[in-house]
Amino acid sequence: MLRRWQSECVGKALDHFKGGQRHFFCQATPAAGKTRMSAELSKRMLETGMIDLVVCFAPSREVAQGFRATLESVVGGKFDGLLGACGTALTYQAMDYLSEDFWSLFYNYRVLAIFDEIHHCAAQEPGVSNLWGQLIVKRIQESAAYTVGLSGTPWRSDEMGIALARYSTPEGRLICDFRYSLANAVVEKVCRSPRIMLVDNGDVQLTVSNSGDCQVRTFESISSLLKDPVVSYQDLLVNEPALRHMLQLANNKLSELRGDIANAAGLVVASTIDHAYLVAEILNALGETAMVVASDSLDARNRIQRFREGNQRWIVAVGMVAEGTDIPRLQVCCHVSRIRTELHFRQVLGRILRRIGGIDKYAWMYIFAESSLSEFAKRVAEDLPHDLAVLPAVEPASVISVGAPIEISGSDSLVEEEAAYPLVSGEPESNETEFYFHRTARELAFSEHFRHQLLAIF
C-alpha cells in the first residue's frame, strides 16, 4: 500500500506528463520512500502504454540493485537489461561506458529515465557541468520520453545547478514539482524525529612544544579550540578521550533503545580506514564489537547485507553506507567524518530516519560541537532552508568547471561531494597516512567536564 504522499506524488507526476511536460522533479526527505513511489509511477505508465521501457540511474551499485529489486517487485517484470526486460537500473559511474546501442534505446523507444539523488549531476550552463551532468544533457535530456529527478537534499555544495532541474527567474530558486518535507514525514509517522546531541567540553588544554619551549593554552569550548590555527578538526576526530566519551554516550543510548527494539543498531561514519579501526578499538574497549565496512573491503556489500539482516549493534563505515542505503534498524549515529558540508550532514542523518514500527519514533545523532556542524544541526529544524535551493548568479569569469567525480580506493560508492569538499575553514590538507597527531609537538587534553546540548527536532 502506498503512503499518502506517494499516491499524491504519482498522481501529480502523471498529470504533469499528460499535460505535455517531460521533466518531473521530486524532493522528498531521506527515508520517505522515493524508490517505492518511482516504481509505482513506472508501473502505471507501463500499464497505460505511456512508455515502453524504464531506465534508472543511482549513485552506487548497492542502491541501483535495491532500485532494481523494488521495480521488479512492483512492476512484475525483469529489470536486468536483457531481452524482454522492462528496463534496467545502473550506476551513474556506468554512464560513461555504455555503448551506442544502449543510447539508441532512447531514440527508438519511449523511455522513462529515473535519476536517484540527481543533485550529484551538475549542469549549470553549456560547458559548465560535471561528467554525469554532461552525459544527461547530451544523451538523455532531449531523447527520453520522460524523466523523473529524485533528491532528498536538492542542492550542491559547489552551488552549481542540478541537471534537468528548473530554476525561477530572476531569483534562481529551485522549482520542485512535488515536495515532501521531513516535518511532514515525522507528523505522518513515515520518518523518525531527529534528536541531535552536540558534545562539547568546558576545559580543553592544548600543549604546544616548539624548540624546547612549552606553551599551554586553555579553551572553554570545542568551537573556541578550533579557532586556534595550531589545531584542526581532524585532530579532534582522532583524540581518543573525546571519541571515547561520544561513543560511550551513543552506546548507552543504543542499549536503552534495545530495551524496546531488540535489534536496534548504531552507525559510526568515520573519516578514513585507519580512523574506522580506531573507532572499532574504542568500541571494543567499551565491551562492544563493531563491523568495519570500508572501501577496500572485498566483500563490503555482503558485510552490509549481513549487518542489515543480523543483530550486531555497531557498524563503522567509510564511504560505503551512502545515501539510499536501506538499513532500517539503524537508530543511532555518530558523525565523526572529516567532511563538513550540509549536504553530507543531512545524508548521514538520513541513514537513521527510516521508521519501521510504532515505537521507534526517535533517531539519535551525536556530533562534536564544531561551529559549522552545530549550525547544520540547528537548521534541520527548518527542514529545507530555501536559500540552499538557490542557484546564485555567477559571473562568467568565476565559473569553475567540475571534472569527473572521484572514487576512493576503487569503491564505486558515490563520494563526489565528499572528495570535492574534504575540508573547510581553511584547514591544511592532510595525507590520510599522517592523520594522527605528532604528539611530541602538541597534545590535546580534555577534562571530565563534558557537556551536551540536545536539539529536539519536530
Automatic annotation (TrEMBL):
Coiled-coil region(s): none
Residue ranges annotated for the Helicase/UvrB N-terminal domain, each copy included: 2-154
Alphabetically ordered keywords of this record: ATP-binding, Helicase, Hydrolase, Nucleotide-binding
First-level EC class: hydrolase
InterPro entries xrefs: Helicase/UvrB_N, Helicase_Restrict-Modif_Enz, P-loop_NTPase
Keyword ATP-binding found: yes
A Pfam family per the record: ResIII
Family matches, as Gene3D superfamilies: P-loop containing nucleotide triphosphate hydrolases (3.40.50.300)
EC number: 3.6.4.-
Keyword NADP: no
A single MF term (Gene Ontology): hydrolase activity
Protein's recorded name: DEAD/DEAH box helicase
Species whose genome carries this gene: Zhongshania guokunii
Lineage of source species: Bacteria, Pseudomonadati, Pseudomonadota, Gammaproteobacteria, Cellvibrionales
